[in-house]
Amino acid sequence: MPATKKELLTNLNHNFNKLTPGGIREFDYKASSIPGIIKLTLGEPDFNVPAAMKEAAIASINANDSHYAPGTGTPALRKAIAHFMADRYNLDYDPDSEIAVTVGATEGIYASLSAIINPGDEILVTTPTFPLYMVVTKILGGTPVEIDTSADNFVLTPAKLQAVLAKHPHAKGIILNYPSNPTGVTYTAAQIKALAEAIKATNLVVIADEIYSELVYDGPHTSIASFIPEQTLILNGASKSHAMTGYRIGFIAGPQELMKPVSAIHAMMVTAASDPTMAAAVAAFDTVEGKTATLEMKEAYKQRRNFVVEVLKQLGFEMTTPNGAFYIFAKIPTQFGNDDLKFATDLANEGKVAVIPGSFFGAGGQGYVRISYATSMETLKQAMDNIAAFVNKED
Ligand SMILES: Cc1ncc(COP(=O)(O)O)c(C=O)c1O
């Protein structure tokens, strides 16, 4: 095994030094070694990929669909995505120039941020947040500006945005993620409209990560692009809506002039997504089977959410009922104080349930834990029994 030449170590991208070590995966990894642990840690749907999507991938392989696709994705998939966006969210995107298929929403985050960040640029990030936005912003030489939304039920208000902009008038972009990982909170149509009106008066590029848009339980999902499409890049994909995390299909939709650099950077990084999984995604986004599969999963998630919220509230956790995604962001019972890392560590070791400490998600997460309910009802029941025993023992 080769040892790295020592002198090279100072030649690496210095932006890496600005990163704080990844908390979630590390915590999950450590917890995995605890015998009998039940993990409610990761945002990974427990459902299998629905049959119609699997069959479409298999048919693509058998048809020797094995060559480089166009950089922005197969015409069939871009058309399917355009239909999906029109059907579900009443949004109008041209499949030829305003949609690019990415390798998961993860690559969409990298491609869209790469297209707008110059070294030193500030990017506004509402927190608690999916940590990748901060990591990628830093790697690209930008500076994330955290906006703590915990005092407003995890929603960014126009007044808060204006206060932040007064201090950061040159911010280049803002990342919004709703329904949110980690809070499960989403914006009502009125809330997002009011925020869009405030953003319209600025030159911020909005990166709207709407990967959980199909998992809104009560009421519709309203995209911010309904109000300010001219300055919005929407990120979405099949990972959460169709339990297709391993297929790695995401997409970006936005106005043509913004999409040009985004698509170019995407093609430079990955050339294109893979043919068989793009074929599967056509079935996900543009067939009755695809739509039905999502609705069935959503119903199951909703039941799980209702169950977990009810038990946790009885045990003294505080939360507003989350209306989307598959996370609950709960304030730990008062008798445990505010140290979420200690609480989560003790719960894992003694109660045998792993959840993620809220402070891993940035400002406003202290004193909370994130619980993923993307797992079976049977597992959730056992987990809640364990949490009850742990909490009641400490009383
Ligand atoms: C908010 C958010 N955006 C993006 C992703 C990544 O999605 P993908 O698996 O499609 O790359 C996740 C995954 O957990 C997420 O929670």
UniProtKB/TrEMBL annotation:
Keywords associated with the record: Aminotransferase, Pyridoxal phosphate, Transferase
Cofactor(s) listed in the protein's UniProt record: pyridoxal 5'-phosphate
Record's keyword annotation contains Transferase: yes
Pfam families: Aminotran_1_2
Aminotransferase class I/classII large domain boundaries: 37-387
Coiled coil region boundaries: none
PROSITE patterns: AA_TRANSFER_CLASS_1
Keyword Transferase: yes
Annotated CDD domains: AAT_like (cd00609)
Protein EC: 2.6.1.-
Gene3D superfamilies given in the database record: Aspartate Aminotransferase, domain 1, Type I PLP-dependent aspartate aminotransferase-like (Major domain)
GO MF term set: transaminase activity
Family note: Belongs to the class-I pyridoxal-phosphate-dependent aminotransferase family.
Protein name: Aminotransferase
Organism: Limosilactobacillus walteri
Lineage: Bacteria, Bacillati, Bacillota, Bacilli, Lactobacillales
